[in-house]
Amino acid sequence: MVCLTDPLVQKICSLYEKISKLENLNPSNDVDTLFTQLVHTCIPPHPIDVTKLCTQIQEIRSKLISLCGQAEGLLEKHHSTILGTFQNPLDHLNLFPYYPNYLKLSALEYDLLRPHYSAPRRLAFVGSGPLPLTSIVLATHHLRSTVFHNYDVDASANAMAAKLVEPHPDLSGRMFFHTRDIMDVPGEDLREYDVVFLAALVGMEIEDKMQVIEHLAKNMSPGAILMVRSAHGARAFLYPVVEPRHLRGFEVLSVYHPTDEVINSVVVARKVVHSSIDHIHQGFGGPLMLCSKCAEIQPFNPIGLIDELAVEEHLC
């Protein structure tokens, strides 16, 4: 049982105490400094297993993830508002301080997706927010003919995101925004997507996230790809963790844990070709398939990534 005796946990708890006492989480010197310290604390590889944290630290972790999500949303709204003042907002994405991270994460996710679905016709991004950088980067750099449907429950976030894309002659015709809870999106819509991305902060608690995954498992088209963002090690104090065992109804193809400044792990899974998985809702008892080579958990190594993935695909 990991508790307050661990130096890493002590430092994270100290930062949590300071963050929780902030008057608000809008971008400011104090907010930016504390969250930067938190991220830098959690980035180095650490063998911590968050499932073995004591109850007190589990509660702090849950609250910290919520605070991180709130701060991230406010940061994105702040910069989306700034970008929206430009005639061509997408020409100024580098004003967002974490834009380089999104470039790296999107390149990683594209390289992980490409061996399994190189040219999707339609892609859904669930939890796109006011600054849908993943969709924008994928659409402009990697998936240049794919149509993107972005889902978010916040109408104001969608309005801000749409304003960024509207002036772009290409993306304005390939990128759409829907103010809907993904749990309310019916099967006839979800089956239209070749690929579905699930943002890290959709379903802050694992029970909520598993409900979303169950809904996708029951309604996505067989053979479609699900890309799920997760976290590993101390980074699990920043984002929820999704384990392969949570992906009932999917064949897990790859799990990658970056070791650089890219925070999120990525889980790639394929909707199983199965006549019926209606029993999933009974205790998440649907089929879980692991390709012995492709489901191997590995740290992200950008050198030779494409060749390695091609070999994995061949072996499967």
From TrEMBL:
Domain of life of the organism encoding this protein: Eukaryota
The enzyme's E.C. designation: 2.5.1.43
PROSITE patterns cross-referenced by the UniProt entry: NAS (PS51142)
Alphabetical UniProt keywords: S-adenosyl-L-methionine, Transferase
Gene3D superfamilies, alphabetized: Vaccinia Virus protein VP39 (3.40.50.150)
Record bears the keyword Transferase: yes
The reaction(s) this protein catalyses: 3 S-adenosyl-L-methionine = nicotianamine + 3 S-methyl-5'-thioadenosine + 3 H(+)
Family annotation (InterPro entries): Nicotian_synth, SAM-dependent_MTases_sf
Function field: Synthesizes nicotianamine, a polyamine which serves as a sensor for the physiological iron status within the plant, and/or might be involved in the transport of iron.
Family: Belongs to the nicotianamine synthase (NAS)-like family.
Annotated protein name in UniProt: Nicotianamine synthase
Protein source organism: Rehmannia glutinosa (Chinese foxglove)
